Amino acid sequence: MAEDVVIVGGGPAGSALALRLARAGASVRIVERAAFPRTKVCGEYLSPGALAELEALGVAQKVTALAAPLRGIRLYAARGDPLTLPFDGGVALALERRVLDARLLAAAREAGAVCEHARAEELILEDGRAAGVRVRDPGGELQERRAGVVVGADGIGSMVARRLGLTRQRSSTRERFALGGHVVIGAGECEWLSMFSAGGAYFAVNPLGPRRANVMLVLARRELAAWGGRIDAAARRRVERLVGGRAPLDLFPARQERLAAGPLAQRVCRVHAPGALLVGDAAGFLNPFTGQGVWLALEGAREAAAAILALLRGECSESAAWRAYARARDTSWRPRRVLSGVMELLQLRDAWALHAVARACSHREAARTLLGACAGTIPARAALHPLVLGRLLA
Fold first, then answer.
1. Model pLDDT for residues 309-339, shown as the tens digit of each residue
2. Residue spans of alpha helices (H) in 24-150
3. Which of 16, 134, 259, 390 could cross-link 41 (Cys pair, CB 3.0–4.6 Å)?
4. Residues contacting 109, CB < 8 A, separation 6+
5. Residue 304 class from Cβ within 10 Å (0-12 exposed, 13-18 middle, 19+ buried)?
6. Which residues lie closer than 8 Å to 216 by C-beta, 6 or more apart?
7. Using CA atoms, how far apart are residues 210 and 228, in angstroms rounded to an integer?
8. From CA 152, how far away is CA 150, in angstroms rounded?
9. Is-contact 79 244, C-beta < 8 A?
10. Burial of 288 (C-beta count, 10 Å sphere; 0-12/13-18/19+)
11. How many CB atoms lie within 10 A of CB 269?
12. How many CB atoms lie within 10 A of CB 102?
């Protein structure tokens, strides 16, 4: 029997979408290949924008009960003192993805969504239209899961996006990879998110509570390739150079505890096709430096739910619903992509980054505007105003 919607991927985007649809009475199935709870390679940061979306979902209290508060962010360039910016415009939290993802998936299941542990291997296409997915269960059996709408929430390298021909070729010279995991840190560093950037790479330290943090080294493919098989020693040396003795944060996970992800890129030409939508990282990926990943996933789920429900209720045609989703997403995505691009440019040249940090220290209101745009306390377009950028970059 076909469901209204089948969602490939049970991360924040997929689970939040399933939760909204199930509460509205739609029949929904999530197909997720990983067994939850699962560990993810990411910053494990919940911005004020992400927390607002969780509040709108009605799950904020359950999801954030085990989270740790963050006072603000410290930005370090290649040398010198950091730019310290408190989260004046809202609360930000740190929470392990294994906790966040499991809680959201459980909420979707409680709302009535079917959550299946299986691997989605291919799309079912009929007359050029997505009609479901073929999945392989843990026992190895291949089965069909048919639905009126197929949603790709399967992240970077999305199978759904590839099969629909929606992906764009990535530039391998700009591809980045992430290495990291959880470490023990000093008690004095437990409330500030620290970012060390130099030489086209950066090291992020996100405290998860007393004396524990998520650390992530993000660097270009070519640098990682030059290390050969000496990843652990080379990564530690790279972190030491980035930190430069300016903070007691020179720890890096041992081989058996280290996780990796990449390439950190996903480009698509469209976020929809006949019978299908893309949400979350499957619909496009921004530089994780700005910390907008979970927020974008939850926001995209809300926008996708509105389009799908309008279609299911007969309020508009599929083409009109999909266009409305694309417009809503473009409105929120475009300024953030530009903002992310500005950050990437600053990371390419240490001199540019040092200049920007110096300017930000002199023009703190402009710096707070930039932080608020990344955190979700103000619209992203506000940070792209010529006066703001001029004060930071001129």
1. 999 999 999 999 999 999 999 998 888 888 8
2. 48-57, 60-64, 97-110
3. 259
4. 115
5. buried
6. 41, 42, 43, 178, 179, 180, 203, 204, 206, 288
7. 35
8. 7
9. yes
10. buried
11. 9
12. 17
Helix/strand/coil for 126: strand
Question: What CA–CA distance (Å, rounded) separates 250 from 261?
Answer: 21
Written as one letter, the residue type at 277 is L
pTM of the full structure: 0.94
DSSP code per residue over 261-327:
E------BS-SEETTEEE-GGGG----GGG--HHHHHHHHHHHHHHHHHHHHTTSS-HHHHHHHHHH
Tokens of 183: 């470490």
Residues 155 and 297: beta-carbon distance below 8 Å:
no
Write out the H or E segment, with its range, that includes residue 113: none
Helix 293-312 and helix 318-348, axial crossing angle in degrees, nearest 10: 170
Chain centroid, CA 213 distance in Å = 18
Segment 191-224, tens digit of pLDDT: 889 999 999 999 999 988 887 889 999 999 899 9
Contact 107, 18 (CB under 8 A): no
Which DSSP category does 255 fall into?
Answer: G
Structural contact between residues 118 and 154, judged by C-beta atoms closer than 8 angstroms: no
Whether 172 has a pLDDT exceeding 70, the answer reads no
Contact assessment for residue 346 and residue 358, using Cβ atoms and an 8 Å cutoff: no
Report which residue type is found at 333.
Answer: W
Secondary element (H or E) of residue 166: none
Q: At what angle do helices 12-23 and 293-312 cross, to 10 degrees?
A: 30
Per DSSP (E only), the strands in 226-268 are 259-261
> How far apart (Å, rounded) are the C-alpha atoms in residues 306 and 147?
18
The DSSP output letter for 377 is: S
pLDDT at residue 189 tops 70? no
Reported as a single tens digit per residue, the pLDDT across 267-287 is: 899 999 999 999 999 999 888
Q: Which of 84, 169, 34 is nearest to 361 (CA)?
A: 84
Residue type, 84: T
List b or e across 68-93, with b for residues whose CB sees 16 or more CB atoms inside 10 angstroms.
bebbebbbbbbeeebbebebeeebbb
58-63, long-range: CB < 8 A, 24+ apart: 59/19, 59/103, 59/104, 59/107, 62/103, 62/107, 63/95, 63/99, 63/100, 63/103, 63/104
**Contact in structure between 235 and 243 (CB atoms under 8 Å):** no
Asked if residue 130 has pLDDT above 80, the reply is yes
DSSP state of 188: G
